[in-house]
Specification:
6-stranded antiparallel sheet, mainly beta, 138 residues
Length: 138
C-alpha cells in the first residue's frame, strides 16, 4: 500500500536580521538563525524568502555581497541556495532599500529537527539585511 500523502496546511513565518558579514560559504562562520513565529513541530516546506535591506534612516545597502541560505540539524550546515543581489546603492547616497524574493516551492521539505540559518558575505555598508521566511507546516 502506498504511503498517505502529506498536506502542508499550517503557515509559518520566520525572521532573521543580519548585521555583519561572514566570508565562509561552508556554514563554518557565525550564521544567523531564523526565529519562527510559533513553533515548528512537524515536517515543513520552505516556500519563499524575502530579503530586504533596512535601516532606521531608510537607506539600507547590502553592499556587494552574496546571500547564503543554510539548513542545519544543529551539527552540520548545508547551503541550499546562494544569490547575488548586487549593490543597489552604488554611486548614490539616497538609494531606496532593496527587496528581493526567492521562491522555493515544494523543492525542499524538512523535518522539525532541521532549522534555517542565513548569512551574507560582506557587512552591509548601511543598515541591516532582513530575512522574512515563509513556510508551510504539515
Amino acid at each position: 500500500m502506498a504511503a498517505a500523502p502529506e498536506y502542508f496546511t499550517t503557515p509559518r513565518i520566520g525572521h532573521a536580521r543580519v548585521t555583519a558579514g561572514v566570508t565562509a560559504t561552508d556554514g563554518s562562520g557565525s550564521l544567523t538563525a531564523v526565529t519562527w513565529v510559533g513553533t515548528v513541530t512537524a515536517n515543513w516546506m520552505l516556500t519563499k524568502i524575502i530579503v530586504e535591506a533596512s535601516s532606521a534612516t531608510g537607506v539600507g545597502n547590502p553592499a556587494d555581497c552574496l546571500i547564503h541560505i543554510f539548513i542545519t540539524d544543529g551539527t552540520t550546515h548545508r547551503r541550499i541556495r546562494s544569490f547575488d543581489p548586487g549593490d543597489i546603492a552604488v554611486g548614490s547616497t539616497t538609494a531606496l532599500e532593496g527587496q528581493f524574493e526567492m521562491p522555493f516551492g515544494p523543492e525542499f521539505v524538512f523535518t522539525s529537527a532541521w532549522s534555517l540559518e542565513v548569512g551574507v558575505s560582506a557587512t552591509p555598508t548601511a543598515g541591516n539585511i532582513d530575512f522574512v521566511v515563509l513556510a508551510q507546516m504539515a
